[in-house]
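STRUCTURE:
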């Protein structure tokens, strides 16, 4: 039986702003938007928001960046690489993920002013 992904690239284009903001449980200073929540719920990726939010607490190089570009690249073998860039294409953090069932081949999330959001929500 094949699982049909609930998340698609096309779904993400519908988010051009956010009516709601959600407080992250692990780092209450971090909020996330409707689009980021959609990624977490429909993509089964609350873990992705957890990594971004907790990095703000524990990774000094990341915390020092006022604008962050988080990119998840999923490979055919279901392994992935998560990177954080400074907004000028300079990588400040990389994490290898041994396995993920994230339903699309990749996604970009932005973090600024303590908010995680989709680029289209800017």
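SEQUENCE:
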């Amino acid at each position: 039986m094949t699982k049909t992904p609930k998340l698609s690239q096309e779904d993400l284009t519908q988010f051009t702003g956010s009516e709601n903001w959600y407080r992250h449980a692990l780092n209450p200073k971090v909020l996330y938007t409707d689009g980021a929540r959609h990624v977490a719920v429909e993509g089964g990726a609350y873990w992705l928001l957890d990594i971004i939010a907790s990095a703000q607490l524990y990774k000094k190089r990341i915390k020092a960046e006022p604008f962050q570009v988080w990119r998840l690249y999923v490979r055919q073998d279901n392994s992935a690489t998560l990177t954080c860039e400074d907004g000028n294409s300079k990588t400040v953090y990389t994490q290898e993920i041994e396995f993920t069932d994230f339903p699309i081949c990749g996604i970009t999330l932005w973090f600024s002013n303590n908010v995680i959001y989709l680029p289209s929500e800017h």
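REMARK: The mean pLDDT is 93.
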